[in-house]
Amino acid sequence: MPKIIVVTNPAHDEVTTYFGIWMEKALLVAHGQADTRVITLNGASANRTELERVVAEHKPGLVLFNGHGNASAMGGFANAVLVAAHDNENVLSGTITHMLACDAGLTLGPRVVQLGGRAFLGYAKPYLLVHDELCDTAERRESDPVATLVLGPAFGAVTALIRGATARQAFMESQERHKETLRMLISHGNQKLLAEVGGAVFHNMKCQVLLGAEDAAF
Known about the structure:
Layout: E1 3-9, H1 14-31, E2 36-42, H2 48-58, E3 62-66, E4 69-70, E5 73-75, E6 81-84, E7 96-100, H3 108-114, E8 119-123, H4 138-142, H5 145-163, H6 167-188, H7 191-207, E9 208-212
Parallel strand pairs: 1-2, 1-3, 3-7, 7-8
Antiparallel strand pairs: 4-5, 5-6, 8-9
Helix pairs in contact: 1-5, 5-6, 5-7, 6-7
């Protein structure tokens, strides 16, 4: 029986489109694993009803959310709530969950773990994305050098989880990639780039959280 990954990819605005592009890159790892099946909820399919149905039917070991959020809720297409604290967070019971979204690690993440989630990785403050304003097409966004500096470290955790690393290993890999990016920016000597991009990378690194069983693995 294959291991199941469920992914939400609303891709309804600029930020979530960037997230989706990078998620596709991360999922190349999963597509290369014969024992892994990926179910992606794209666009309008990234809604609460479909998420709850897919999770109940397929019982994924890993759920990867991409979208906008707040302290108590994770959004999907058009920011409609997919999972909310004190509502339906038990849908993630038994899973390892990663949420690339603002603030979801503050209240929602702890509730997911309290109600049976194996581990949760996310951000306890707003997630900051910086990108090149000239990258205004899908092709340009895919190779956006500025967004790469910010999203590369974040998706280090995602690819590690897909590979089967423990939650702790995935968290530390992402943290180290944030640090490597900061060291590179400092050595580059471009103060404007360091202030704008380095500030976002440092902020994201500091507000990244790991909750639950650190030895949990997909």
